[in-house]
Specification:
The complex is a heterodimer of chains A (491) and B (112).
Chain A: H1 7-19, H2 26-54, E1 57-60, E2 71-74, H3 76-99, H4 102-125, H5 129-147, H6 153-184, H7 189-196, H8 202-220, H9 229-234, H10 238-262, H11 268-292, H12 296-302, H13 304-317, H14 320-351, H15 367-381, H16 387-401, H17 405-430, H18 444-462, H19 464-479, H20 481-490
Antiparallel strand pairs in A: 1-2
Helix pairs in contact in A: 1-2, 1-4, 2-3, 2-4, 3-4, 3-10, 3-14, 3-18, 4-5, 5-6, 5-10, 6-8, 7-20, 8-10, 10-13, 10-14, 11-12, 11-13, 11-17, 12-14, 13-14, 13-16, 14-15, 14-16, 14-18, 14-19, 15-17, 15-18, 16-18
Chain B: H1 2-20, H2 25-46, H3 67-98
Helix pairs in contact in B: 1-2, 2-3
């Protein structure tokens, strides 16, 4: 039964390889990709059901006992994130044929797509820090393929920066793993967590912790390391932006959650105080970026930064409410960012431009699209009863309990500005003068995936009663690392 | 021995950073290659440098070399090799499309 833990990595990998053989047969590739992603979603749902009812599934690969071999740990947090990943991916797979040109689809879009899913799931599931680096590289390689897909001038320009910054942080990751191996003599996360308590020189561990935080902060696009992110996420096709925005930065923040709740818990005053300020600054600068531009894709891309700030804030206060809020917000943000990027892509396609100064009055032609954007703005900013609200209430309650008043004020103000940045798209693009000469295009197939994602994120808010107990048990589990260590070392 | 290798890794890192701060694409690629070399060398040093026996369990041998850093380095080398070759192609294409191999001139305006 423990083999179930590796299936979310293996299925997309095999799917990607199979689809690489006949990229030109588009009809077949499209059907197969949908079958694979739905199949994977079903497997992951089953695994999630098992994990939530019977406890973590732990796979010792090749039957090497825990500290020696690579282990795959499907605990509640990772399986929940893998499930969300697959939901987002399924929506993107259904949106892709409407948005990508045939040429782009033929150039191995689906192969890269499945490799990306495989890498993201692997990074969530692995229990070995070097293996996490390998899965980071798998997903980054796939993302390099996706970001240059089509090879436009502007895409190539942004991908250069993207590749270099990620390469740099990956090499630092290897170095940090080297340090960690030198200090504790293992790369198994549970065993590291065990041995960290016994190391004499705690100073070196703090250094390694900060180094790893730097690495993950680059990937997660936190202040001040976000400068590469907005443009490089805004230039590719909307499907690819949605995948990147929903998954890639979240892998970085997941790694921060995992590492700083499991391994580096010995010097909380120092690291977590820094996190508070970094999260506050991320909120401020991210939202200022979103307000500074008229490009709808860039507005959405900039909105990733404050979201990551919110998630980090929960880790920084490190109490029950804070961590629950972080996890809630993480799930919420994956869904809503994917749907916002897809919406922005649909709007840009319908209006013929992504520049807000070039279109207005779209509500006359696309009323449904307009109201979807309106609702998703509310969901993102956290207007009750939507999911952003529940996450933020938990986060703010955690911050108040930790007596961090400054961050609470920053968080509330930046939420207002986030709402304004989305409403700006609505007011400028959908209200205003009706353009009589405008020729509406059909956006039929494009709305369905967005509606599904939006419905799920609305459910995440309205059904909070139903979902919250699971989130609470995850945060209890995270705050008590002994449970993870025991499960891995003795399982 | 560890001391010398550590310094060598440090020198490699410094050279790599210097090259990464340049504007020309090829220099950036060289910088990234040197950076990965530095990281790999460092990883090797962390597992202790010694003349041990091969890490195969046989009787009467107690002085084993640590196999883990070697495995890690091998994995990491393959990855950085792949990325370097991708980077070279990407740099070539970018230079061709944008008619420049200078990062400074690659800025461009926002709403293209």
């Amino acid at each position: 039964m423990s083999n179930l833990a590796v299936l979310p990595i293996i299925i997309p990998l095999i799917a990607g390889i199979i689809l690489a053989f006949f990229p030109k047969w588009l009809t077949l590739v499209r059907i197969l990709s949908k079958i694979f992603i739905i199949g994977n979603l079903a497997v992951v749902s089953f695994a999630a059901w098992l994990v939530f009812n019977q406890g973590s599934i732990i796979l010792e690969t090749g039957d090497w006992a825990a500290p020696y071999g690579i282990i795959i740990v499907a605990d509640q947090l990772s399986i929940l994130l893998v499930l969300t990943t697959n939901v987002v991916a399924a929506a993107c797979a259904f949106y892709a044929p409407h948005s990508l040109s045939d040429r782009k689809e033929k150039y191995y879009f689906y192969t890269f797509f499945f490799m990306l899913i495989s890498g993201v799931s692997g990074a969530f599931l692995t229990g070995d820090i070097f293996n996490m680096f390998v899965f980071f590289e798998v997903l980054l390689m796939a993302s390099y393929g996706l970001i240059v897909l089509g090879g436009d001038k502007v895409q190539l320009r942004e991908s250069m920066k993207y590749v270099f910054i990620n390469l740099f942080s990956s090499m630092l990751f290897v170095t940090a793993v080297g340090f960690l191996y030198g200090a504790v003599g293992t790369v198994n996360m549970a065993q590291i967590a065990q041995r960290v308590q016994e190391v004499d020189q705690q100073g070196i561990l703090t250094t390694v912790g900060i180094l790893l935080f730097f690495v993950f902060a680059v990937k997660a696009a936190l202040f001040p390391l976000y400068y590469w992110m907005p443009k490089s996420y805004a230039v590719p096709n909307p499907v690819i932006s949605a995948l990147f925005g929903a998954l890639l930065t979240k892998v970085g923040i997941y790694a921060i959650i995992r590492i700083f709740s499991l391994i580096f818990v010995h010097k909380i005053e120092l690291t977590h105080e820094a996190f508070i300020w970094i999260s506050g600054l991320s909120m401020i600068f991210g939202v200022l970026g979103a307000l500074s531009t008229n490009n709808i894709k860039l507005i959405i891309a900039y909105n990733i930064i404050p979201a990551i700030g919110f998630i980090l804030m929960g880790i920084a206060v490190f109490n029950q409410d804070g961590v629950s809020g972080s996890i809630y917000y993480l799930i919420h943000d994956m869904l809503i960012k994917a749907s916002l990027f897809l919406l922005a892509g649909t709007i840009a396609y319908a209006a013929g431009s992504s520049d807000l100064r070039k279109f207005s009055g779209l509500i006359h032609y696309y009323p449904f699209l307009g109201w979807m954007l309106f609702v998703s703005g509310f969901v993102l900013a956290g207007i009750p009863p939507f999911s952003g609200f529940i996450g933020k209430v938990l986060l703010l309650r955690g911050a108040l309990a930790a007596e961090e008043i400054a961050i609470v004020i920053i968080a509330l103000l930046s939420s207002l500005l986030i709402l304004y940045s989305i409403m700006k798209i609505f007011i400028r693009g959908f209200w205003g003068e009706k353009d009589e000469s405008f020729q509406p295009k059909s956006i039929k197939g494009r709305t369905v995936p967005v509606v599904v994602l939006l419905a799920l994120s609305v459910f995440l808010g309205i059904g909070a009663e139903f979902i919250y107990p699971s989130i609470e048990s995850i945060s209890k589990y995270l705050l008590n690392p002994a449970e993870y260590i025991n499960a891995v070392m003795e399982g | 021995m560890e001391f010398i290798i550590s310094i060598l890794a440090g020198v490699l890192f410094a050279t790599a950073i210097y090259n990464l701060l340049q504007k020309q694409f090829l220099r950036l690629v060289i910088g990234s290659v040197l950076l990965s070399h530095g990281a790999h060398l460092f990883l090797l040093t962390m597992g202790e440098l010694k003349r041990g026996n091969p890490p195969i369990l046989t009787e009467g041998v107690s002085d084993y070399a640590d196999p883990l850093p070697q495995a890690l380095i091998l994995t990491s080398i393959v990855i950085s090799f792949g990325i370097t070759s991708l980077l070279l192609v990407l740099a070539y294409r970018t230079a061709e499309e944008n008619n420049t191999d200078n990062m400074e001139q690659l800025r461009g305006n926002e709403n293209e």
